[in-house]
Amino acid sequence: MKEFDIAVIGGGPGGYVAALRAAQQGACVCLIEEDQVGGTCLNRGCIPTKALYATAHLLQRLRGADKHGIGVGTIDFDFAVAARRKDEVVAKLVGGIEQLLKGREVEIFRGRASIEGAGRVCIRSRGVVGHIQARTIILATGSLPARPKTLAIDGKKVLTSNEILAIKELPESLLIVGGGYIGCEFASIFSALGTRVTLVEQLPGLLVQSDRQIVRDVEKTLREQGVAIHTEKSVESLDTSGDGVRVRIEGGEEVLVARVLVAVGRVPNSSGLGLEELGVRLDKGAVVVDAAMRTSVEGLYAIGDVTGGIQLAHVASYQAGIAVTNALGGEARADYRTVPSTIFTLPEIGQVGITEEEARKKGLNVSVGRFAYQASSKALCDGEVRGSVKIVADGDSGKILGAAIVGEEASALIAEVAVAMNQGMTAGELGRVIHSHPTLPEMIMEAAEDVEGMAVHKIGRRTKTE
């Protein structure tokens, strides 16, 4: 039986990065994946969603082309072509990862893995059973869409994010259950593509973990696109017996739609791996790890969504580096204080650190700087004037505590604030960094200056206590 230094179970953005990182350092590595490398993110999540998002964004811009003096006439949109393009993007990236793994001499085993004992992994594939031995195992099996028992998901009319990304025809109407980032992204995408969208959320508002002022811009755009938003409501029943799906919403309203998307979160993919038998500590299905990504069992690490922590692809990749470093004898610990995140709604949301509300709840002396897209020369030139930048700083030290951005390129702009926070910069120091003109990143500089009431292109002087 061949023995590996490290066996990685799961080939998503945590698993394949762990395999590559270990191989870069000379370890003998294998990767076990029962489906395609790239995991949910690449095959059924981040990437296919963003490919469709790019199409929706382009359509949105084309509809406003007349403001630039460009007449495009009737816009002919073919969803089948967009879906095919999405699949091509995914296939190209999957092929690229496979080449990277091959180039680093990572051995790939296709099949379902389970852990039978210390360093011993069983692999089942099409009735064939094999075994490998490894000094260290890194578990990176990700997560699965939550499937509430009260909502009969059939994969045909009532879908999860997995199935909706596989459709080849644009539904005339769609009801989305869940107003988190997954639900809001799909609401933005499908409404922009021409689907009549209804969004139902049990909580008082959408995107409850995001800055409230930022979310209002997204809610406004969704409503302008015709999305019917129901908050503080639940879906009481789904009837798929006729054409489409008849949905009963709390309060008595009934809606007939072609498809229903259930987007109420994701759960750790930890069952069937032999973890309970091995004595691995679990918490509601999530593998419990410390800051070094170690589990309760010697020689077993876990990273990514299966740990039940921050469910972001880039966090899984970051944790991969931590786990590999420690598996190979190093000492590394995870630090999540400056994790940027992006929600690809129309407009985009970018976030890092804590919100103003969270800072105030902690009793911190807070100073806030703001800058609007409509005051940016570059945003005006681009015709993208909806949105704002908000930087939250400690009122005593000036250290940046967090930031929230809504608007064009928010996904890219938030990275600058994340770097500044990582380096311990104050808002004043960030505001004194020279920024190229005219660019959108100038808004970061202006918002940072506004923390101290010194933004040049903003009327009125603010004080730290405002």
CATH superfamily of the largest domain: FAD/NAD(P)-binding domain
Count of runs of 4 or more consecutive helical residues: 14
Give the overall shape.
globular
Using the CA coordinates, give the radius of gyration: 24 Å
In the CATH hierarchy, the architecture of the largest domain is 3-Layer(bba) Sandwich
Determine the mean pLDDT.
95
CATH topology of the largest domain: FAD/NAD(P)-binding domain
Strand content: 25-35%
Helicity level = 25-40%
Tally of structural domains: 3
Main β-sheet description: 7 strands, mixed
CATH class group of the largest domain: Alpha Beta
Amino- and carboxy-terminal Cα gap: 68 Å
Number of strands: 24
Organism: Desulfuromonas soudanensis
Keywords: Cytoplasm, Disulfide bond, FAD, Flavoprotein, NAD, Nucleotide-binding, Oxidoreductase, Redox-active center
Binding site for NAD(+): 178-185, 201, 265, 305
Cofactor: FAD
List the helices and strands and how they pair.
Blueprint: E1 3-9, H1 15-24, E2 29-33, H2 39-44, H3 46-63, H4 79-103, E3 107-110, E4 112-117, E5 120-125, E6 128-139, E7 143-145, E8 158-159, H5 161-164, E9 173-177, H6 181-193, E10 196-201, H7 212-224, E11 228-231, E12 235-239, E13 245-249, E14 254-257, E15 259-262, E16 266-268, H8 275-278, E17 282-283, E18 286-287, E19 300-302, H9 313-327, E20 341-343, E21 349-353, H10 356-361, E22 366-372, H11 377-382, E23 388-394, E24 400-406, H12 410-422, H13 427-431, H14 442-450
Parallel strand pairs: 1-2, 1-6, 2-3, 6-19, 8-15, 9-10, 9-15, 10-11
Antiparallel strand pairs: 4-5, 5-6, 7-16, 12-13, 13-14, 17-18, 20-21, 21-24, 22-23, 23-24
